[in-house]
TrEMBL record:
Record-level GO BP terms: oligosaccharide catabolic process
Subcellular location: Cytoplasm
Broad enzyme group: hydrolase
Main location: cytoplasm
GO MF term set: alpha-amylase activity; oligo-1,6-glucosidase activity
Stored PANTHER family: ALPHA-AMYLASE FAMILY MEMBER, OLIGO-1,6-GLUCOSIDASE 1
EC number of this enzyme: 3.2.1.10
Ranges for domain Glycosyl hydrolase family 13 catalytic: 16-422
Name this protein carries in UniProt: oligo-1,6-glucosidase
Keywords: Cytoplasm, Glycosidase, Hydrolase
Reactions it catalyzes: Hydrolysis of (1->6)-alpha-D-glucosidic linkages in some oligosaccharides produced from starch and glycogen by alpha-amylase, and in isomaltose
Family as reported in the entry's similarity comment: Belongs to the glycosyl hydrolase 13 family.
Highest classification ranks of the organism: Bacteria, Bacillati, Bacillota, Bacilli, Bacillales
Amino acid sequence: MVRFKEPWWKRSVVYQIYPRSFMDSNGDGIGDLQGIISKLDYLKKLGVDVIWLSPIYDSPNDDNGYDIRDYRAIMNEFGTMDDFEQLIDEAKQRGIRIVMDLVVNHTSDEHHWFVHSRSSKDSKYRDYYIWRDGNEGDPPNNWGSIFSGSAWEKDKATDSFYLHLFSKKQPDLNWEHEPLRKEIFDLMKYWLDKGIGGFRMDVINFISKEDQLPDGEIHLGQLYGDGSPYFINGPKIHTYLQEMNEKVLQHYDVVTVGEMPGASTEDAQIFTNPGNQEVNMIFTFEHMNLDSGPYEKWDVQPLDLVKLKRNLEKWQHALHHVGWNSLYWNNHDQPRIVSRFGNDEVYRELSAKMLAICLHLLQGTPYIYQGEELGMTNVRFDDIHEYRDIETLNMYKEKRQQGIAHDKIMSGIYAKGRDNARTPMQWTSDGGFTTGTPWIRMNHNTSRINADQALADPSSIFYTYQKLIRLRKEFDIITYGSFQLLMPDHPNLFVYKRQTEDEEWLIVTNFSKQTEKMKWDEIDVQNKNGKIMIANYETHQLDGDIMEVRPYEAFVLSFRKEMAN
Ligand code: NOJ
């Protein structure tokens, strides 16, 4: 077995690209690999050292590539295998690794495994998927799909039902079946041998389902049963991940991050403990669910900062010296953070920088989602037909059928819809993403918010991110220091400390548009003569017993510890 020293990914910063919306090189309105290549220097300038690509495999795009038809081919709209190899190569020349999205909880229904599987009960591929007989014509259980409707689809050819936790064009794979696991391990090697830097694993803690697939509880206001207790962190999840590690991952020096809805800190301690050889880190959803009702994300609740702080504190403590955290505010499934936990009007710049500073000073590997470094905002399309996301469109249809008013549904979409993250990257004042018609409408504010403008302004959000990345590379305390939450019950200030033996850093952030007061006494730092490491206001007044923390202000002070004598 090959062993590696201090993993490189602990000091890395990852940039996520949603290829469809990043940069179009050929004017068809769809982003592509050559588009990404043309922006590598931009990413190099930002300073990231890993790019995670949302799926680029051949796909009918029911769920924009998260429905894979051929794991070994590149999606036509995105380019060719030569383009991909060029991307790996050119990224490498700039010290950047490419991480692929591994979507193996399900495939597309157009994948040849499923085409064969559905054709006959005797097909060699039958057991690659989860088939059950119906219940007197009804689905085998009451589970709802995450994209609305039942999680089961009846298939005429064999008069049986297949499970699809997502859309009916995304049938779930049957990990119980050993030949299927082998196929997956082989395809992982196929990409790793091309020199990729690792995998982000899509809903990887859904792959082991409980045998009996029992009915789930039907929560208040829901049409279907909640199957999640029976497919999240199922009985064989650790066995499967360890097998994947033994057969594939441990033979390569790569990073792995498992997307794991519903995973707790206790689960994460097992998944990310290096001794268990499963994954390096996971994406938790707990902090992203704090502004949702108990049963669905569309039920938008105001953020309670105290809960957010307590939650991040729990994750920081649980994984310190045990496993490893990922740090994120945004991805292709989440609304834009500046519109969500910040303020996308007068305080857009300040609050975007504050959120960046708050997140990037935590322990873990930070992920930046395309456009986050520009402070891109949510969108509001009046017409539902302008939306493209299957989750949003199915939900809209189902809720309209239930008689829920258009405006009420739209307010959920404005706040939480995934297309908020998927509008084209804003490169120039007139867009700059494509010379054609973009596959989804551009946010109207590109005239104000765009990369050209950000690069030309030394005080832009872009340069705050650049500086945060540089600080991480330079100061060990960011990677290794312990974490301590201060003033835990303050409703608007998020203040914490990082510490090593000889240094401590104080991170002060204000999540509100009010000026807040903070007493030095309250925060127990060694002395007041700290050095500003990064901040989002230009001037600072740190003297006196009380500090005034201005609207959305953020700053970081470093102190050398006084040696006890
Ligand atoms: C999680 C992905 O992030 C999301 O975009 C996708 O729709 C589902 N998994 C299904 O693959």
